[in-house]
Amino acid sequence: MLSYLILTTRAILMAAVLCGTITGYTRMAGDRLQRRVVWIFAGAGTLMSMVIAFLRNTTSLIDSAILNGWIYAVSLAAFLLFLLFTLKAPSSGTGKVLRLIPYILLGILFMTVIAYAMPEVWAYPHHVLLSEKTIISTDFLMAMIGMTAGLILAVVTFFAVEKSLMRLSLPGAGIFLRLELLLNAAMRLSGLFSVLFQKKIVKSNHLMFTYTVFVKNHADWFMFASLFLALVLAFLLFAGSLTQKEPYRNPAEHRKIRAKWRSIRRWAAAVCVVSLLGVLNVTVVEAMNATDVTLSPIEEATDMDDENVYVGFDLVEDGHLHRFAYETKDGVQIRFIIIRKPNSSSYGVGLDACDVCGETGYYEKDGQVVCNLCDVVMNISTIGFKGGCNPIVIPYEIRNGQIIIPIAGLLEYEREFK
Questions:
Q1: Among 61, 119, 178, 410, which residue has the fewest nearby CB atoms (within 10 Å)?
Q2: Residue 380 lies in a domain
């Protein structure tokens, strides 16, 4: 249960803060049509996330890295255009279409946030059923309780941030919106660089690589920064409630004003509570839930030269998980795993690490590949594709009965194993 609570929190809590900020700002600044446009895009993002989850987990029709790359690129483009179109407030003579454009861009951002964050969550029941085979089991029930608790936390966070933001002035709400969008853009830029490197669309350079690795290794910091901004919002509301001196003409108006500020304080308190719960989930609860599984030993590859590691089919054709490593000149072991896919002549190849849980590794249990940190069961057929808790994708080729792993591709992830 705790594993899926933690995973769901990591996947969507920051998205909930951003989406709440977008809708709160839209409800303050937009008219009925502008608000409707944002929600239409939100619905499209939800539908898209379900389709992506289905295709990722039941077919090999999509390349997750390429799909994510498009999501990153569209998100960044929408963010930059939104900043451009809101450099100054629209004049009274601005056309209706031009006034609608910023909200179309916010809607696109809303859509990309959901399309990126939610497929992983929709896939959790499928992941559990890979090992449980039936929904009539205690493990499946506990996993779904954890997932549901994480979803409830995200929904409450969304409404708490939205309601709190609406109590600010419009300029103040605009500042908070742009800061949250900036944090999101920083993470999407790192993801885009990663895809471009992986697909060899651009050649890696030190600055881009260092930035990408930093963001990947400190993803929690960005979530904490997003929650910190929400806490600043709550603090401002609390401070405002203590100093408010709204005039009133009679006791009825006075009671109405007091009720309004009580409501504001409650939503601000809700922001504080959900922020605290989110931080506790990915720190204290995760530490309590950590498992201690002994990973299988590292096997010796068939051959190795200055450019490649070679693994013969005879070493990995039994359908079990096999772990190999390349040791750098600094003594860092960069581990990678290989497993033959069920009822197939193809192989799943990836680092013994993932973007979500780091280099804690994977182990085999009852014919399934399981993450050592969060106990998520991998769909073996999707190992080699980016997404969720799958192993980080590395380049390789198959030739002359061997799986050939370029050493340069492994060295890109040396910091993951330090």
A1: 61
A2: yes
Q: Are 324 and 339 in contact (CB under 8 A)?
A: no
How far, in Å, CA of 104 to CA of 107, rounded?
5
Average pLDDT over residues 177-186: 96
Percent of residues, the chain, with pLDDT higher than 90 = 39
To 10 degrees, what angle do helices 170-198 and 64-85 make? 150
Of the three residues 289, 317, 335, the one that is the final residue of a domain is: 289
Whether the pTM exceeds 0.70: the reply is yes
> What DSSP line would sit under 7-71, residue for residue?
HHHHHHHHHHHHHHHHHHHHHHH--HHHHHHHHHHHHHHHHHHHHHHHHHHH-S-S-HHHHHHHH
* Angle ∠(282,284,288) on CA atoms, nearest 5: 105
Tokens of 411: 């060295």
Residues 284 and 315 in one domain: no
Q: What is the pLDDT of residue 367?
A: 75
pLDDT tens for each residue of 384-398: 777 667 888 888 899
Q: Which amino acid is at 358?
A: G
Assess contact for 395 and 299: CB atoms under 8 A: no
User: To 5 degrees, how large is the angle CA 151–CA 154–CA 157?
Assistant: 150
Among the three residues 289, 311, 346, which one is the final residue of a domain in this structure?
289
The answer on 407 and 265 residing in a single domain is: no
Q: What is the pLDDT of residue 417?
A: 82
CATH number at residue 336: 2.102.10.10
Domain that holds residue 347: 303-417
**What φ, ψ does residue 128 adopt, rounded to 5°?**
-65, -40
pLDDT score for 137: 76
How many domains, the chain?
2
Residues in CB range of 212: below 8 A, 6 or more apart: 190, 193, 194, 197
Q: Tell me, yes or no, whether 232 and 328 share the same domain.
A: no
Which candidate, 155, 154, 225, places its Cα nearest to that of 186?
225
Q: For residue 99, give the H/E element and its range.
A: helix 96-122
pLDDT in tens, 19-32: 999 999 999 999 99
Pick the closest to residue 118 from 71, 165, 80 (CA basis): 71
> Does some domain include residue 294?
no
Regarding whether 149 and 32 lie in a shared domain, the answer is: yes
